[in-house]
């Protein structure tokens, strides 16, 4: 998608050439080999066509399988399983229990195990779990499989964010992380259409109700995508077999030039201290949660329209253009963030924009907004949907000096950041408050403005290098491992 000539010595002669000798690459060097832009362009193209494109498709499948419960509920599962509101809410809760529990262990494992094998296996596992949901006959079995689904999906998102950060430079990472995360919006845009198509054409086929076909088909999508991953995903820059030796050395050099480690060492108390005893993970968790709460306007858009008197079909279909618009905004923000070399003010600026719109929506008629304002405000707020992904891209850079710390920090921030907002949402965004949702709008406004302040605080602490996470060990072993991998 883009290629840039990089090197730590900006005064290097333009006719210098990238060295392909077998000498080990030392991360501590003050100067680095010249990076050939032609080879770099070829490398980045390979990564985009294989890793990035697969990650987007896999995340699309991830959100399809995670969020299809509400579609199944409206397609007859409610009556077939005698699923009341309490049982349904527990099915949702069971997923998040599993999802949060295994995120940190999953990212610890990925530093020690082949991502090319681990991540596709995760996708196949959750696809199989969803397909098996077609076999359930009561809500207790649904609870058990939803718990298993959360456990299966836990390692994917933080693991993929971590892997992207292990390959792309800071000039490339923002827009690619945001592109990966738009799998969320695309799933939201088309998930309902897929469910509607299955409901119209598959009900009664093979003696099965439509909701069981929904689980079978969307689960099998995950299985197929997972199998593709075995052939497309890389491992890490120093040990990916489908790169040439020249590309492998360049891949290592690119990230090392920016001070990033991509070799796993032994876990130690220093790893824990890097995450728990520095302020960045805690501030990022609070910021993540504040941003996440702002997504509720988009999540409840169909409910708002339905309660305003629009037809159910129209209300559901209106999600599609809103999510597509949000995906375009996300990639645009990521592109600008990379181009300007900035994370903080893109996050803060977006949160200021979102907070202002929530203020307008809450103030006008005390939340009982006219239809035009509902549409305009919801579209404006879709800029918020992927901002948590940009926070994690920034975390990839804050924790760049230690491979293991970066993995644990990303999973920790994502796990707790996803969990905490649920305790606020159950009080602020109550379905019975639709369509006004005044309390939810005011709460989201406050959280968005708080995110502006938190983001600026994190930026300032990074700028003055306050307690920045450090490497846990000497880097001599990194040098030896890279040399050994290149000679293998």
From TrEMBL:
It is a multi-pass membrane protein. The keyword Membrane applies. The chain crosses the membrane at residues 47-64, 87-110, 117-136, 142-165, 177-199, 211-233, 280-305, 317-337, 344-364, 370-395, 407-430, 442-462. Residues 8-22 have a biased composition (Low complexity). GO terms for molecular function: transmembrane transporter activity. Residues 51-475 form the Major facilitator superfamily (MFS) profile domain. Keywords: Membrane, Transmembrane, Transmembrane helix, Transport. It is found in: Membrane. It comes from the Eukaryota. Residues 1-29 are annotated as: Disordered. One of its GO terms (cellular component) is membrane. SUPFAM superfamilies: MFS general substrate transporter. This is Major facilitator superfamily domain-containing protein. It comes from Phascolomyces articulosus.
């Amino acid at each position: 998608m883009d290629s840039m000539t990089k090197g730590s010595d900006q005064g290097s002669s333009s006719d210098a050439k990238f060295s392909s000798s077998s000498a080990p690459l030392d991360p501590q060097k003050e100067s680095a080999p010249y990076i050939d832009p032609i080879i770099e362009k070829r490398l980045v193209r390979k990564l985009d066509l294989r890793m990035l494109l697969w990650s987007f498709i896999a995340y699309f499948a991830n959100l399809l399988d995670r969020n299809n419960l509400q579609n199944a509920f409206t397609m007859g599962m409610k009556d077939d399983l005698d699923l009341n509101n309490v049982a349904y809410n527990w099915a949702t809760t069971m997923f998040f229990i599993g999802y949060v529990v295994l995120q940190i262990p999953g990212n610890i494992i990925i530093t020690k195990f082949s991502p090319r094998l681990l991540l596709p296996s995760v996708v196949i596992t959750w696809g199989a779990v969803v397909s098996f949901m077609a076999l359930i006959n009561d809500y207790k079995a649904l609870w058990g499989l939803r718990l298993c689904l959360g456990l299966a999906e836990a390692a994917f998102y933080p693991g993929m964010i971590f892997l992207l950060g292990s390959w792309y430079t800071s000039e490339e990472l923002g827009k690619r992380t945001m592109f990966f995360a738009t799998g969320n919006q695309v799933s939201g845009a088309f998930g309902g259409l897929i469910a509607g198509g299955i409901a119209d054409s598959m009900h009664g086929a093979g003696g099965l109700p439509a909701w069981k076909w929904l689980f079978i088909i969307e689960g099998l999508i995950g299985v197929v995508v997972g199998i593709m991953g075995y052939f497309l995903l890389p491992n890490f820059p120093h040990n990916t077999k489908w790169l040439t030796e020249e590309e492998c050395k360049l891949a290592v050099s690119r990230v090392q030039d920016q001070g990033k480690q991509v070799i796993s060492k032994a876990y130690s108390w220093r790893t824990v201290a890097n995450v728990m005893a520095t302020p960045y993970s805690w501030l990022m968790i609070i910021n993540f949660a504040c941003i996440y709460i702002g997504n509720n306007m988009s999540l409840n858009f169909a409910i708002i329209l339905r309660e305003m008197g629009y037809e159910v079909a129209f209300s559901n279909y209106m999600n599609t253009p809103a999510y597509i618009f949000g995906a375009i905004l996300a990639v645009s923000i990521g592109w600008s963030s990379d181009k300007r070399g900035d994370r903080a003010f893109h996050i803060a600026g977006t949160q200021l924009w979102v907070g202002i719109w929530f203020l307008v929506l809450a103030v006008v008629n005390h939340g009982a907004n006219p239809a035009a304002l509902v549409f305009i405000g919801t579209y404006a707020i879709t800029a918020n949907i992927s901002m948590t992904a940009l926070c994690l891209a920034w975390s990839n850079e804050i924790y760049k000096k230690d491979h293991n710390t970066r993995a644990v920090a990303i999973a920790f921030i994502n796990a707790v950041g996803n969990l905490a907002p649920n305790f606020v949402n159950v009080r602020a965004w109550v379905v019975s408050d639709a369509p006004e949702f005044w309390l939810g709008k005011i709460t989201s406004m406050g959280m968005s403005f708080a995110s502006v302040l938190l983001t600026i605080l994190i930026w300032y602490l990074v700028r003055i290098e306050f307690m920045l996470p450090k490497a846990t060990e000497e880097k001599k072993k990194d040098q030896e491992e890279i040399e050994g991998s290149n000679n293998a």
